[in-house]
Write a structure and sequence with these properties.
With 191 residues, the chain is of the alpha/beta class. Helix content is 59%, strand content 14%. The chain is built from 8 helices and 5 strands; from the N terminus they run βαβαααβαβααβα.
Length: 191
């Protein structure tokens, strides 16, 4: 069973690559961003609270994310070949909580894939996505804030998984297929 985390700065292609990984390896894709956007669209209490953080480029509090994800993981791990987490964990505290969650389910994270993309390329991709998808959080002010938050809070998650020998950096520049080829090489070695 493959239980993968895909991470990298906003705009690195996590969602695109996650879709390809799901198709090839038959994993269930759990995106905290998608789970949160569903709550926001429903205008639930949780969604409205989450939107107040996201619209300013801030991370949603750990407890809120952990509660949502714990439910989703427990529902999925018994009925699938594995999971791919996109957008979680974003902090070391979340990584520790994820490890506890997985251990309680008698599962473990196989690998964290870290997509590495140059900063200017990230900005260009996010601005383009904002124009084409209408995502309100893809504007220059929010992008800069999100990249700063990523460097301060999320990048240390890589070190957490490096220390567990469950880390692979993947060059995230090039065509979608080139990047996916690099990811597939890494994942095929873990089967």
């Amino acid at each position: 069973m493959l239980n993968i985390i895909i991470c990298g700065a906003p705009g690195c292609g996590k969602g695109t690559q996650s879709d390809l990984i799901v198709d090839k390896y038959k994993l269930t894709h759990l995106s905290t961003g998608d789970l949160l956007r569903k709550e926001i669209a429903k205008k639930s209490e949780l969604g409205l609270e989450a939107e107040s953080y996201i619209s300013k480029g801030n991370l949603v509090p750990d407890k809120m994310i952990i509660d949502i994800l714990s439910k989703a993981i427990s529902e999925q791990t018994s009925v699938c070949k594995g999971i791919i987490l996109d957008g979680f964990p974003r902090t070391v505290a979340q990584a520790e909580a994820l490890e506890t969650m997985m251990a309680n389910l008698n599962k473990e994270i196989t690998l964290l894939i870290d997509l590495k993309v140059d900063t200017q390329e990230l900005i260009d991709r996010l601005l383009l996505r904002g124009k084409t998808s209408g995502r309100s959080d893809d504007n220059m002010e929010t992008i800069k804030k999100r990249l700063e938050v990523y460097e301060q809070k999320t990048a240390p998650v890589s070190d957490f998984y490096k220390n567990k020998n469950k880390y692979a950096a993947v060059h995230g520049m090039g065509t979608i297929d080139e990047i996916f080829g690099r990811i597939s090489t890494v994942l095929d070695s873990k089967k």
